[in-house]
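Backbones bend. We report:
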Amino acid sequence: MQAANRIQKALSTQRGLSFGAWQMLPGANHARFMARTGYDWICVDTEHGNIADWQMHEAVAAIAATGTSPIVRIAANEGWMVKRALDAGAHGIVVPLLYTADDARKLVESAKFPPVGRRGFGSPFAMGSTGGVSQLEYLQQANDSLVTIVQIETKEALENVEEIAKVPGIDVLFIGPWDLGNNIGRPVMGAFHDDLNTAIERIRQAAIANGKRVGIYCVGGETAKKYAEQGFHMISVVADAVALPTFLSNELETAKGSKTDAAVPTY
């Protein structure tokens, strides 16, 4: 299983760098197109994306078939949501809206088979996305082979980030800058406020100090490059719902001869 999990292999290297893209629009073909573009992972977003449960299942299988890791962002820290994503064959889960270390421990309990946690066993689908292992092999290897990612995006999670980072079974602290900015009273209106940058650095340091990886959501390649140079590991470069309208409008402006070079935001 570990050999088939591209994101885990990337995170396990000395540098630990991986780049991903965010899928918010439904469709197995859409997921497959995204997965073939060279990213280490594609995150299927069932929190804010227009993706239902059955569409998540289809997207996970389509992404995994290309050799790219399917990651699923569930809508909340609910055990049944964790189970549905992992049973679909996700190589990892992103979980939003955590507040405390107890929330992180609750997540680990949902994501891991006994004796570590209480995840139920029985999915006939997960093995197809994790290297074609047998059900018994999946049961024996899943706890060590799947990636558990918590979003740090609330004021409370920031205040408790050092304790969250200590929780065994959590692999990545993933920063959602827009929600984090809103929740600490520094909404993103362009360039990040100094207080938000300080909060982001606090999260990065908490992760590193506790042997975790740190990730962040970006809206373009320039920003992603900056965070890669700063030592971040799991970096979302762009979302389909951002890339598609941006590309379409830019190409139309080029066709009309009215495109002007705009400054790239440096978030």
User: Anything to note?
Assistant: The chain has one domain: 2-256. Confidence is low (pLDDT under 50) at residues 263-267. The longest helix spans residues 240-256.
